[in-house]
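Page 42, continued from yesterday. The earlier attempt failed because a stray header line got pasted into the input along with the sequence. Redoing it now with the clean sequence only.
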Amino acid sequence: MAVPQIPEDEISERFIRASGPGGQNVNKVATAVELRFDIAASPSLSDAVRERLLARRDRRVTAEGVLVINAQRYRTQERNREDARQRLQDFIAQGAQPPKPRIATRPTRGSKERRLQGKRERGQIKRGRSARDWE
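This time it went through. Structure tokens are written below.
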């Protein structure tokens, strides 16, 4: 399935100062990007994709269904902006891919026998630990 393109008006960006080391540059320049995308209210996403994205247990998605991506890997604002948008595309691409249905399988006879043999051996070990008459 093709990844839907997100229009500019659905994305809000805010430029903030990055945390971590970097000397004066970190204190003066707002190079980090906080990108917000409202998954719950986006008209460009199909219902199935929206449901899958909101169902994911991701700490970047708020209770209101807003995805918040903080990008501060790079020293320039433009690189961080590109990084945030790429991470948004990757996130949506994961939701656009329907989950693979699970095919029910049954354990083989050999695996059942190995499991039961292991249980018998464990029981034997435990029986050997019991108190005995040592006279």
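Notes: The helical segments are 24-28, 47-55, 77-96, 109-129.
Reminder to self: strip header lines before submitting.
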